[in-house]
Amino acid sequence: MEKLEAMKEKAAWCLGCQNKPCSQACPMHTNIPEFIQKIKENQLKEAYQILVENNLFSHVCSLVCPQENQCQGACVRGIKETATEIGELEAFVNEWAIEKKIYPEIKQEQKNTNKRVAVIGAGPAGLSCSYELAKRGIKVVVLEKELELGGLLSYGIPDFRLDKRIVDRAIQILRNLGVEFKLGQAWGNAFTLKDLKKEFDFVFIGVGAEIPNTYSLSEQQLDMVHNADAFLRAYHKKRIFTDLGRVVVIGGGNVAIDSARAAVRMGAKKVSILYRRNRRYMAARPKELRDALDEGIKWIELTRVEKANVENGNLISVHCHKTQIVEGKVQDVPGEEFDYSADTIIFAIGLKPNQELIQKEGLEMTDDGMIRVDENHQTSIENVYSGGDATENKSVVCKALASGKKAAESILAKI
Are 358 and 176 contacting, i.e. CB atoms less than 8 angstroms apart? Predict the structure, then answer.
């Protein structure tokens, strides 16, 4: 009861703006003033319904989305005072629903059509697309190469940031809506777009980015160099590396911080994040960095890792250059080089789509190797759509969800 009163007090801070700048700044265009008004009125079930009807992964967004740059960043209160704590209020409503064992009441339409949609990939974009289509009564079949659902929500965001039961709950709602899931179905091996177009009327590609970005640190093959995607998958599967020693994570995004915190939980002796830019330019949320620092992780900014120093086949340190930001670009500081002790290196500098497969399937690509889509998220192939990390460089969960939703709306407009 005390928490409810505290949340109602936070909700009272919302001005209920008629033009809803917070909703406009939200990629999912959540009706924020409306759900907050329901909290004020002690109608939590109605608040939950507003949230989940619009966004199946509302709870996920409340925990991992950068509200400070989106909804809260646009809050009118935040201009001269403190912004309304939208993320915290959204999380509270969803947690209340779980505690009360309440599921959303989704009124599924009965579409007078036999149209079928194949969704490739059970990550945020694919699941969001599936949700919007299933609500409208469209038959959806999701093809996922892994043996579990959720994509990066399951294996890419560690459990200390996102409870996997939240993802499972959302997937169960999809199952209840009749969405069919087929696991172990890798695009390019188990099927091609040509195969799917024979069986389905529309296809949505939500495979994300899967090829790690790295660069050569040594002429030798080093077992103690990992990419963040594989490292976080190992952590998710509880495959613990017991001999990490002194860990250096290269990168400045949330994935770098997640990898560093996972390394701490694997028993690393010391963990440091080395980033060539500074905090102003980091992609990671300030909150995530604060959590990492609280756990004893070292943040070394304006530092570029050039190469690995190896002795007798063992990594002993990394050779670094101090950097500076000049007109937004990173430059080495002449003469400022040093070695930083390390036993393990984790690359966390992003992922890119499987460009070989994209080309093989005849899809047009952008100059930076993403799947090219139009304003409706349709690809260069008729009735084939795409969204998420395969179409937008360094996308975030809420933007991937929004792209899946937009593509679903475009498909529905054709049915």
Answer: no
Q: Are 38 and 46 in contact (CB under 8 A)?
A: yes
Q: How far is Cα 270 from Cα 263, in angstroms, rounded to an integer?
A: 9
Say if residue 395's pLDDT is above 80: no
Residue pointed to by tokens 């209920």: 16
Pairing of strands 225-227, 384-386: unpaired
- How far apart, in whole angstroms, are the C-alpha atoms of residue 109 and residue 51? 19
What does the pLDDT read at residue 256?
98
Q: Quick: pLDDT tens for 45-66.
A: 999 999 999 999 999 999 999 9
| DSSP state letter for 261 | H
Q: Mind listing the pLDDT tens digit for each residue in 142-190?
A: 999 999 999 999 999 999 999 999 999 999 999 999 999 999 999 999 9
Model pTM greater than 0.85? yes
What is the pairing mode between strands 246-250 and 303-311? unpaired
Q: Residue 165 belongs to what H/E stretch? A: helix 164-176
**Residue 19: its pLDDT value, please?**
95
User: What kind and span of H or E run contains 322?
Assistant: strand 314-326
Domain at 2-99: CATH code: 1.10.1060.10
Nearest Cα to 146, choosing from 254, 233, 235?
Answer: 233
State how far the Cα of 115 lies from the Cα of 133, in Å rounded to an integer.
Answer: 11
Q: How many CB atoms lie within 10 A of CB 85?
A: 19
**What CATH architecture applies to the domain 212-347?**
3-Layer(bba) Sandwich (3.50)
